[in-house]
Amino acid sequence: TGAGSGLGRLFALEFARRRALLVLWDINTQSNEETAGMVRHIYREMAEEAAAAAPGAAGDGEKDVLPHCNLQVYTYTCDVGKRENVYLTAERVRKEVGEVSVLVNNAGVVSGHHLLECPDELIERTMMVNCHAHFWVT
């Protein structure tokens, strides 16, 4: 979750380098798709490197190369602060991708205000995303 920017994007890119099939969630469709594009670029680079290092291609048959395992990235727009949106998106993932084996529940709201200066709505939104969403997504 929160894959469209910040730490969520960095986690996605690192998992891509480790050959993970990724399911990216973010409330912002555009930034989530940007992250997916970066992931696809990493996958293409790894596939090209593997092809170049294949026995006979570079003349080094002793080099161990991890196979390109049909790596894919899936994107979903989801507001994790809304329970029903989480449940619906999770069901779509189960149907379209399968079961998730590792969850990085990273989405978060940062208000930038002192507690006593926060409007009630922002406090409620922060609690929904930074606390309740962890239970719903899990």
TrEMBL record:
Entry-linked Gene3D superfamilies: NAD(P)-binding Rossmann-like Domain
Assigned keywords, A-Z: Oxidoreductase
UniProt KW Oxidoreductase keyword: yes
Domain of life, source organism: Eukaryota
Single GO MF descriptor: oxidoreductase activity, acting on the CH-OH group of donors, NAD or NADP as acceptor
Pfam families the UniProt entry points to: adh_short
One Gene Ontology cellular component: lipid droplet
UniProt-listed InterPro entries: NAD(P)-bd_dom_sf, SDR_fam
Family: Belongs to the short-chain dehydrogenases/reductases (SDR) family.
Name used for this protein in its record: RDH10 dehydrogenase
Species this chain originates from: Pomatostomus ruficeps (Chestnut-crowned babbler)
